Amino acid sequence: MFYKTVEPSHKTFDYVLVADKVDDDTDLKAQRQKAFIQQLEKKNISVTRILNDDKVFYGLRAPNETFEEYKYLLKVSDSCNWSEDEQNGIPLVTRIRIVHFILQNTYINTGENLHELFMKDVFETMFCLHELKKQKELTKMWAKWSHLFTDQPVREIKNYFGEKVALYYLWLGWYTKLLVPAAVLGVIVFLYGLAFFNTNPLIKEVCQSNVTMCPLCDKRCRAWQLSDSCTYAKFSHLFDNEGTVAFAMFMAIWATLFLELWKRTRSRNVSKWKVYDWCEEEEELILELVNDPNCQPKQFRHSYLRSTVVLILVTLMLVLILGLAHMLVVFRVVAAPLMSESNWGFIKDNATTVAVMLGAVLHYITIQVMTRVNRWVSFKLCDIEKTNSFAARERSFTVKMFTFQFFTLFSSLFYVAFFLGRINGHPGDYVRIAGWRLEECHPSGCLTDLFIQMAVIMVLKQTLNNIFEFTVPWLKNCVKRNTAKKLQRKCGHCYKACNHKQDCVELCDICKLQDWMRNFNLANTDAFSLFNEFLEMVVQFSFTTIFVAAFPLAPLLAFINNIFEIRLDAIKMVRLERRHVPRKTNDIGVWTKVLEGIGVLAVIANGLVIGFSSDFIPRIVYYHRYGPCATGIADTHCMEGYIKNTLSTAHLTHPAVQKDFLENQMTINNKINITQCSYRDYRSDDDYSLTAQFWLVLAVRLAFVILFEHVVVVCKFIAAWLIPDNPIQVKNNRLHDKLERLKEELRKIKHMNSSGVPQRLSTSLE
């Protein structure tokens, strides 16, 4: 063959297999180990066997012919024929990827592959080796806390971990940079609410009110004074003010700009890496042929039965997740009245708020448990589907896992945003679950409950996840590090000689074992390790955009988290984990479609939050129709009397109301008996029917949501149209590259025709 393969300065191993030592050769496990190694040797893979206590290490090195065949097939392929590897030889990242595929697709005579042998404990694990020199270089320039605010060396990451990992860090870095304007504007909106913290007339009305409110629960709760919730009203205004409307519109457009600008950034970089037209499925077909020249292509298959089964199981899983969200609602309904009887004054006075926070913590615990369940179910559903390639399986798994996680994370938030306080009924006709009355919204609005739920989940999820992500592999590495040190001391002079001589051809067994043990003791990684990082960030993107109207500080928290997340992931990947199997790709895959879907959902959700969850629309209606300024009353603030206007009165003389409230509930300070109380709703004081103001507010709410969504969607389409996915420079560079490649091929043909090479070439290929 006439293709050149780049050789390292000393012989490296492409992969290492680890198994438990079995002394009995007749043992079935030992026979399977031997059979698998023999199959590898039949493929001309050299195997170096080294014993260490109760472990057996197999160092694997594929022959150059394997990589030359791969390179030639790349050259004649449709989509992969102009990769950077073709021009510069076969780097170690490509060698690792090829050998990894061969290992995964090698079968012993019983028909078992390596995955099945792992399940039966025939082999313990396998891993590719870190390159110590490049590992130190990446640590020095990137994987250190001191580089917290420095740019990422994306090209060096690509050369060491492959394009897929590089694209993840490129995307994460771009996302973090674009969070800066969103975070700044979110802080401005928050400060706007803070500026009127003590002077807002709505807050004053609550704090100075003498209105008596109806009990918030059955039997245990008592009537209370609206002025008791003064602090809650102030807090609500921080996140429910006029600025949140503009901010929600900005974030919906921001999501589109982020995605469009990301597509340009991705296009520019993958064009530089010569993988713009790369096709993972086509490379997988090439790898199949390299592994087995007599292989048959995996046919595309579709079964209506399997699809129906998967659809039914997905539906059942979503029903289960929604059932868990329902249980969280029941917990809050039960917890609030129980806490109102607490001996601790703080909990007794803030029973509803504490119940909301405890519900959020319980929701977080549910998320952690369901994440593992969702992963297992998603894998099993992919097994039922029987996709024809790893790339297709990965796409299917991503969609299912994200769907399950999204429902797990957001089902409770959707309840708080759109159902809390709207389906609970009214005095005389309350809605109950198992005898417990549903929650009500505070007279200042429901948005604070949504904010508390989001803040607790987001802070807990990001903080605790990052702590566990870093400390667990770090502690494991510290515990296991002593083994490698003992081997280093045992090697002595031989170790030093082999590591300092540049022309060292083959390391001694102790040096090899020391390097293998160093990698073996690191935290394990698999094909879906990077998926976990993507999922974490895409879920964060969802929190940052979907309910941002209720939590304008979400972009700021996301920005701060990502600054540390980038370095944490870098340190973990370079120093604490085994080397990821390099994957060549030209995109972040199906995640782009997921992000686009989140962007559309963000427009709908924020429109509904502003229109139905916040008090923005009722305030606008009151200002223009029912307030002092609308009725011609001068020398008063236009919003004076708004809170009282949103309240209706329940009279104890009504028989149905008497059934809902006990006598001991309708007392204040255990002394004063009351004959009426107020509750948040637009209802008649006589027959409790909905008033004309309710229907007017509802009509304006619906009109606002429709107008908001149409305006924002038009802005999103205009932004997407103005910003093309591919910069003109990238298009011109690709055109130039294609022309140069064709010229090079033409020169080769002319040269071979003039020198008579074709005959010799065809002979060598045969």
What is this entry, summarized?
Helices cover 63% and strands 6% of the residues. The protein has 766 residues and is an alpha+beta fold.
Notes on the protein architecture:
With 766 residues, the protein is an alpha+beta fold. 63% of the residues lie in helices and 6% in strands. It has 28 helices and 14 strands. The strands form six sheets. Strands 2-3-1-4 form a four-stranded antiparallel beta sheet, with helices on both faces. A two-stranded antiparallel sheet has the order 5-6. Helix 15 packs antiparallel against helix 16 and helix 17 runs antiparallel to helix 19. The longest helix has 45 residues, at 447-491.
Portion in helices: 55-70%
Mean pLDDT: 83
Strands of the largest sheet, in order across it? 2-3-1-4
End-to-end Cα distance, whole Å, is 10 Å
Q: Estimate what percentage of residues fall within beta strands.
A: 5-15%
Computed structural class: alpha+beta
Low-confidence stretches: 1-10, 498-504, 759-766
Global shape: elongated
Radius of gyration: 32 Å
Largest sheet: 4 strands, antiparallel
Work out the number of β strands. Answer: 14
Number of H- or I-type helical stretches = 28
